[in-house]
Design goal:
This protein is mostly helical. The chain has helices spanning 21-38, 41-48, 54-75, 82-86, 88-108, 114-121, 123-134, 142-159, 164-190, 196-218, 228-253, 256-263, 266-278, 284-314. It has one domain. The protein has 14 helices and no strands. It starts with 20 loop residues before the first helix and ends in a 5-residue tail after the last helix.
């Protein structure tokens, strides 16, 4: 029997025959677009900061995004109440996780540069792998363990610097990434069969509801100013709606390990945006720590693929 070779998940990026040139160009454009927009998350949080209270800013960004996705679902006649009724406890947990994570990201902008925040935020990949290992039953290789240690060292290099403000901002981003990874684990375990539009809408709706409760508890609920409104709408459209659509589209194109390695490069773009928009740039120590985080994340996410290649190379061709 003739073996059928497995389809390469990223073949569209480098195959050279004429039939795949258009697909290759589209694939590269998709990945670059995702990196540039995904890297804007902390930059957008910093842009919103001077115009509105961080907690209110987080609420209105998510609420506007929920409204846009809801209108899309109504126009396409795809929204159903049944998914919410069937999975409401999980939606509540996921909504709470994302609400707390988003709040921490927006409040952290008072203490940390967006470029550094993006570097620390890449720890979410390692947290996700941890949840996969201890909760979802995934296996952890030696290479992934080494990569995790390198990334933790990089985080320590960034965190332990003079000044309490930077330390506080780093801790807030670190806690935010842990909680967001928890949301991802809940989604992976309980929401895999649900269609994306309904899941995304109810996730946004519950997140907005929790953010509204947080602001009501603080006594800070108010309408956005005339100056803040267009900025909030822009952030909701680009940072939530468009960014997540690109995210899921790219995820379906690539293997998970390749996808994670690609996203690990997003802080580089965040540093560029931060320099261009705010005239700030990470220190040498922050850059060294960031390089350690990126290298560690790349090693963790790429280790399974490298191990498979090593095993195939060690197997005789006629075996």
């Amino acid at each position: 029997m003739t073996d059928v070779p497995r389809k390469n998940p990223v073949a569209f990026l480098w195959t050279g025959d004429s039939e795949t040139l258009v697909g290759r160009a589209r694939g590269i454009t998709l990945i670059v677009s995702l990196l540039m927009i995904d890297s804007l998350h902390y930059v957008f949080a910093r842009v919103v900061f001077p115009y509105i209270d961080p907690g209110l800013g987080a609420f209105y960004v998510i609420a506007f995004a929920a409204l846009e996705i809801g209108l899309l679902g109504l126009v396409r006649r795809r929204l159903r109440l049944a998914p919410l009724l069937r999975q409401w406890p999980t939606f509540l947990a996921i909504g709470l996780c994302v609400a707390v994570s988003t709040n921490l990201n927006y409040f952290a902008m008072a203490y940390i540069d967006p470029g550094v925040a993006a570097l620390v935020g890449k720890m979410t990949v390692l947290f996700s792998l941890g949840f996969g290992l201890f909760w979802l039953g995934d296996r952890f290789s030696l290479g992934q363990g080494v990569g995790s240690a390198i990334a933790v060292i990089g985080l320590a290099v960034i965190s332990f610097q003079p000044g309490d403000y930077l330390g506080l901002g780093t801790l807030m981003i670190l806690l935010s990434t842990f909680i967001y990874a928890l949301h991802a684990a809940l989604t992976k375990r309980y929401m895999g069969e649900m269609d994306l539009l309904n899941f995304f809408f109810y996730r946004l709706l519950l997140t907005a509801a929790f953010l509204a409760l947080f602001n009501l508890a603080r006594g800070e609920m108010a309408l956005p100013s005339r100056e803040a409104f267009p900025i909030l709408l822009l952030v909701a459209t680009v940072d939530v709606v468009i960014s997540r659509l690109l995210y899921y589209r790219t995820l379906r194109k690539l293997d998970m390990s390749v996808f994670a390695v690609a996203l690990a490069a997003s802080p580089v773009a965040a540093v560029i945006w931060s320099r261009f928009l705010f005239d700030v740039f990470p220190t040498v120590q922050q850059l060294l720590g960031g390089v350690c985080i990126l290298f560690g994340v790349a090693l963790v996410t790429g280790a399974p693929a490298w191990e498979r290649r090593r095993r195939r190379a060690a197997t005789p061709a006629d075996a």
